Structure formats: C-alpha cells, structure tokens
Task: structure prediction
Amino acid sequence: MENKTKIRVLLVEDEEHIAKNLKLNLDLEGYVTDWISNGQDAIKEFNEKKYDIVILDIMLPGMDGLTVCENIRLTDGGKTPIMFLSAKSMAEDRVKGLKKGGDDYLVKPFNLEEFLLRVQILLKRFSQEKNIEHFTTYQFGENHINFESYEANTINGKIVLTKKEILLLKLLIENKNEVVSRERIFQTVWGYSVYPSTRTIDNFILNFRKYFEKDPKKPVYFQSIRGVGYKFTEE
Result:
C-alpha cells in the first residue's frame, strides 16, 4: 500500500460543488489535493509543483481539459497519470480523450467509490511502471534493448519500439521465466480505461517474435500460454 501522505493530486474542475466534494474525499483518503478551476492556472500549477496524478475536467472555461492535457504531456513525457472527468459519454469522446494523452476517462455523474478506486488503480499502475525502470538496457541472445531511447538492435536489424511495446517488454523481462496474466498486462500496459482484446496482446507477441526471434514460427523467447498468459524465457 502506497504512502498516501506523500501523494499530491492536482484537481482541475470548474464546478465548485463537485470540486469541493472530490477534494474532501481525496483529502479524507490521505492525499494532498490542490484544486484549480481553470485550464491556464492548471498548467502553471503543474509546472511549478510536483504532482503524482492529475484529475482533469474536460469542459473548462477558456482552455479546455484536452488542451491542458496536451500541454502537460509536452513537459512530463507521459510520466504523470491523468484522469479525465466529463459529461460526454459517447465512445468517440472517450477515445479522443485517451488519444490526447489521458490514462482514464470517467463519465459524469459517477459513483464516488468508483472514482476513488480508479485513482488508486492509476497510482498503482504508474508506480509499477516506475519500479520496472531500474534497468535502462537489456540484452538477450543477439538482441539489445534500450528502454530509455526505445531503440533496439535486433537479430533482424535496428528498430524503434512504441511506448506500449517497451512497457510490455519490461513487464515480461522483469518476470522472466514466469507467466504474466492477461489481467496484469491490461493493468500495467493499458490500464483499466481501455479494454483490448486478447488478440491485441497476441499481435504484440507476434511482433516481438518477428523482431527478436531467429525463427518466429519456433519462438525461443516469447511464449503464449493458452488460457493463462504470456512468458519471456531465455535460453
């Protein structure tokens, strides 16, 4: 369980009654919460202080939450979890928010208990990601991965990996020779805001085999365990 007394929350919400209720409950959970009511001040506050999570309403006066999110992502490199709050419930609105850099999207009105649980889950997921960043490079066989630059020198040439590929590789490598469940992969790589199909993970594993295996049809490193999960195994 994380030490919540050290966790700082930036709450950006222009509806005062909602903001006061959320701040009260976040504070009762042990978080340190700063409330800002507009986008411009939110960006200034984020740049001046260190926050562990941002809870961001989309419909704000002046600068909307999507633009605020884009500005934050320009400076933090995706290291701070962002949860969108919005009255817009259409799938395309949710997708747009996630594409702009959000990590979760909660539709108003929402259940307070679910809100607090999602905050906890986001913090846990990002904490897990930080914990697996203790190594910056890794070599197996004729393959060498740089987790900071996202570059890999593989048996099939030099490639640049995506963020999700890097996160999945780190997760599998950190749990070398152990099966990692689909649920854990969903939580660590995608989070609970997006629910990819099992086929999505299969496609990532197939790509890893193309990148790193001598014979993708006879994989040595990347195994799919039917009905259970996935495993990285070294020779």
In short: DSSP finds eight helices and twelve strands in the chain. The CA atoms of residues 2 and 120 lie 9 Å apart. Confidence is low (pLDDT under 50) at residues 1-5.
